[in-house]
Amino acid sequence: MDATVFEMTIPVSVDAAELAGILDCQEFLGAWEAEGSVVLYWSKNGAAILQQVRSAISTLGVVPPEGSLQFHPVKAQDWNATWAASVQPIRIGRRIGIRPSWATMDMPRDGVELVIDPKQAFGTGHHATTQLILEWLEGVKWVPGMRVLDVGTGSGILAMAALRLGATTALGIDVDTTALDCAREYAAVNNIQEELTLSSCQLATLPDQSFDVILANLDRRTILQVMPQFSRMRGLHTQLVLSGLLEEDESEIVGQLEEQGWLRRHVRRWDGWIAIQLGVASPDSSSSG
User: Which of 80, 111, 178, 281 is 20 to 30 A from 6 in CA distance terms?
Assistant: First the structure.
C-alpha cells in the first residue's frame, strides 16, 4: 500500500523557510511557497498539529483565513514529484539566477547562478523577503576585502550570492543545525569553499568585530531581540540590510536603530514586505543601494 502524507495549503504570504523553522517537529515534512500561499506537508494529521500551525503563523504576525487550515491526503510519491516541480528557475535583478539542479536557465555573460534544490524549504530564493536583499546585493559596489555577516543564514543563499557578486569572505550564522547542514551541501554544490564560514551560534556569542555588510532576513520579533548586537559588528562604513519585515514594522525598527547610531538609507518594498538599508550615522557613511 502506498504511503500517505498530509498536505495543507494556507493562503497567506509568509516565508516558508521561516515557518518551517518554527514547525520543527517529527511530524513536519516540509514546506514551500506557491502563488501567495504556503504549502505544508505532514506525516500525520490531527488537532494538535492544527494548533501548532495556528501558533506558528501567529508568531509571524499573520492570521489565516477562517477554515483554511485543512488536511488533504496525498500519495507520498506524488508529494515528492510536486515538491520537485514546485521549484522553478528564477531570475532576480539583472544578474542573479537561481535554479534547481534538474533545470537550466539562460544567464547574461556576467550572471551569477546558484544551484539550490529544495530541502525542507530552507530558502530557495522564491520569497519576496529574500529577493529584496538579493536585489540590493546586486547593486553593492564591492571592493576587495569586504566581509559579510549573514544572520539567520538558513540555506546560505544570501551569503553565497554576496560572495559570487564580489564579497571576499562571508560568515553565516544560524541556531538551526538542520538548515546549516543544508547550507553546507548548497555551498559544496556551488563550489563555494573556504570563503564561506557557517556556524551554529547566536549573534550575541560572536566576539566583537566589524563587517562591511550585515544581512538579516528575520521576523520583526527576532530583529528587535538581536538589534543591540548589530552595533557591535559595525565599522565606519558598515551597511546593514534587514528583511522579513512588513511595511507596518518600518517606523518601529528604524526608530530604534536610529537611537543606536544607524541611519536609514533606503527602503525596498514588495507586496507588503520591506527591506531596510541602513548605514552608520556619521558624515563618513555612504550608501550603495
Answer: 178
Q: Residue 183: which H helix or E strand, with range?
A: helix 177-189
Nearest to 8 by CA among 69, 97, 65, 62: 69
Query: Does the structure show a pLDDT above 60 at 189?
Result: yes
Per DSSP bridges, beta strands 96-99 and 90-92 are: antiparallel
Report the pLDDT value the prediction gives residue 177, as an integer from 0 to 100.
84
Bridge partner residues of 169 (DSSP): 147
pLDDT of the residue at 196: 98
Cα separations in angstroms, 152 against 4, 63, 73, 76, 155 = 33, 24, 33, 31, 9
Beta-strand ranges (E) seen in 124-223 are 147-151, 169-174, 196-200, 211-217
Cα distance between residue 99 and residue 117, in whole Å: 8
**Statement: residue 80 has pLDDT above 60:** no
Q: Which strands, in side-by-side order, build the sheet including 96-99?
A: 90-92, 96-99, 112-115
